[in-house]
Amino acid sequence: MWNYEKRLQYPVKIKRTDAKMAKMIITQFGGPDGELAASMRYLAQRYDMPYREIAGLLTDIGTEELAHMEMICTIVHQLTRDLTPEQIKAEGFEDYYVDHTLGVWPMAASGAPFTSNYFQSKGDPITNLTEDMAAEQKARTTYDNILRLVKDPDICDPIRFLRAREIVHFQRFGEGLRRVQDQLDSRNFYAFNPSFSNPKKCNGR
After folding, report:
1. Which residues pair with 107 in a beta bridge?
2. DSSP class of residue 3?
3. Which residue of 1, 53, 72, 161 pairs with 10 in a disulfide if CB–CB is 3.0 to 4.6 A?
4. Which three-class secondary structure state does DSSP give residue 95?
């Protein structure tokens, strides 16, 4: 059970609307490397993680990703609230507006809607943690790309915070992967199925 604090993990106080920037930043809500996919990935993977401390790590980071999703949604909302019809058309936001008005909806910058195909839950600790490390690096790269395009310091500030957290998560998942590799046992695919590496055997026979 989680305790919800009614405040953002890091403050978001954007003064100027910018629909073009909102269309890019929204990818970190519903895009392939966004916070929604990250939170669902980790919170799903924790159930079949055989090592309790690593399951706790997945729960911790998955929960924090929900907080990051809340920040991204707040950024998109503040960038689009009170847009006039003239601004919507001038800033290329009319296609989004027609479908969602000014509501926040999970999609990539390309316009593709969110899908669970963006994340994996493979049931193997090493596979999952390796994917998790890659996911954090891809999210960090996306934030790097956003920061190359952002000029408004009110947007840069929370985006830099989110980027820094991706780096921390990458490091923590790396530590978790090393722990799993150091204690291979019957709960781990690699230890439980050594015959799969034998070229003389097929299908485990």
Report:
1. 113
2. P
3. 161
4. helix
Helix, strand and coil in the chain, % to nearest 5: 65, 0, 35
Closest-CA residue to 176 (of 133, 114, 112, 122):
133
Range 42-45, long-range pairs (CB < 8 A, 24+ positions): 42/132, 44/119, 44/121, 45/121, 45/128, 45/132
| CA dist., res. 56 & res. 87, Å (int) | 46
User: How does pLDDT run across 90-133, given as a tens digit for each residue?
Assistant: 999 999 999 999 999 999 999 999 999 999 999 999 999 999 99
| C-alpha radius of gyration, the chain, whole number | 20
| Cβ atoms of residues 80 and 171 within 8 Å | no
Q: What is the largest CA-CA distance in the chain?
A: 70
Q: What DSSP element (H or E) covers 116? A: none
